[in-house]
Amino acid sequence: MLAEVLIHSIAVILVVLVVPAPCRLWMRKTVVLLGRDTNRLNFAFIKKEMYMKTMKDLAKLVFMSILTATATISFTACSSDEDFASTDNGSAQKCATRQQVQPERTVLVYMAGRNNLTNNENHVDFLKADLKEIKEGSKKLSDKDCMLVFVCRYLDDSSTETPWLARIWRGEVTDSVSVTDMGISKSDARACDPVVMEQVMRYAYDKYAATRDYGLVLWGHGTGWLMEQEVSATRAYGLDNGNCIGNSGKWINVPTLKNILQKMPHMKFIMCDCCHMMCLEDLYELRHVTDYMIGSPAEIPGQGAPYDTILPAMFEKEMFYSSIIERYHTSVKGELPLSVVKMSEMDNVAQATAQALQSVKTNLGDGYADMTGIIHYGYDDNGSEHLDVHNFYYDAGDFMSRYASAADYQMWNEALSKAVIMKRTGYKWDTLKKWEKFYTDFKMTEEKFHGVSMFVPQSPSTSNYNQYNDDIKQMEWFKLLANDL
């Protein structure tokens, strides 16, 4: 690359010395085609006296040519994410790679958008809107803050594009690379496919290795710990319908997600911009792959997080989670429960839960807990009539305060409070269900809200609990508490 710059610089000088004045306009056009900044070189109206330049002036001209060419080569960006377009053969038109300072923190927003977040009856593309916010927020970052996005989505005409990874820098999409260029075939490129996810994350964190730490944002749909036996078949995170429109695609379950993240650099934080991920089951499963987890135990609104305001917070050295949760909560006018969990405390929470469940079992005997009136963050719409037995994702502390002994609840709550280091109450939140019908069977208060949900087994004859009672056995949380649940 440097040799090319020198050749171009020498060519410019020869033109200056040899070409007659009437040809200067052609020369200026030639320089433009080479990517030079002709205003800097100031070749317009070169007078006859220029032929008599001293060697000192000539050296200055060479220096200016090299400087301008180097500046041109060091950074070239696409003006928008639409400039990254798939070609007919499935590869991608890439923005030019630029020279870069090694980042201190690298954050990847993994956007699983082949679902109704980019294609819906209201024609609202939430992924496109969030990309715009990310680009706006990136203008406030330093060169040592590395903001990456992986984009898997539908386009405006409901077609799919080859998924791609890029760095968002100063409001621009830069260094774009498609999954095809990573060696992933287009037909297999679902965001929730474990092979795809692992290859993308490995490429991202290897190419943009950070000197300090890493972050990850899981963008898309989420269903907490819910799953089925087949990996990438249903539930948990990252609904991807592939080339089909609808919401009947594949997901990745949390144990599989954990296995992938264990192969990556340890995360400073994982932010879940998807529904229901702040449940004790997921938190315990992922306790060794990240220092902090940020998200909601409930459904989150389609527009998700306000990336234009929280992006700078993601790169704060210490209290980043406080800034993230405060700005997120403000953006939804307080209508969303949010929490931050310190993952190193999850083993203590698990041990405290096992102890507290002993008094719960004593209180319940051989029966199942009556969950009427307890805060819940989900509803299984198994019929047209609202019944309490269809509720799930119960607030862990609201359950414990009712059924554990006072002493056990106090012990348990102290352990949980060391883990849930920050929380913001939402007295109401956006939901696919009608709020007034499905979510007025409990009262949300600061005291009753504990920031995380917990699965509570119910009679197998109730709603889908036969399946839930079986699915939960795949989680480490259940394996630890099997004798107590």
Oligomer: single chain
Characterize the main sheet.
Answer: 9 strands, mixed
User: What's the N-to-C terminus distance?
Assistant: 65 Å
Helical stretch tally? 16
- Strands of the largest sheet, in order across it? 4-3-2-1-5-8-9-10-13
Instruction: Give the topology string: H per helix, E per strand.
Output: HHHHEHEEEHEEEHEHEHHEHEEHHEHEHH
Helix content: 25-40%
Question: What share of the residues does DSSP label as strand, in percent?
Answer: 15-25%
Characterize the structure shown.
The chain is an alpha/beta fold. The chain has three domains: 2-74; 81-345, no CATH class; 347-481, no CATH class. 34% of the residues lie in helices and 16% in strands. It has 16 helices and 14 strands. It has helices spanning 2-18, 24-33, 38-41, 55-74, 126-138, 194-207, 254-261, 280-285, 307-310, 320-331, 346-364, 396-403, 406-419, 435-438, 465-471, 476-481; strands spanning 105-113, 145-153, 164-169, 172-178, 213-219, 237-240, 250-252, 267-273, 290-295, 338-342, 376-379, 391-395, 420-424, 453-454. It has a nine-stranded mixed β-sheet with strand order 4-3-2-1-5-8-9-10-13, with helices on both faces. Helix 1 (2-18) packs across helix 4 and helix 11 runs antiparallel to helix 13 (406-419). It is globular and about 60 Å long. The termini are far apart. Mean pLDDT is 79; it is low at 1-76, 85-93, 228-236 and 242-247.
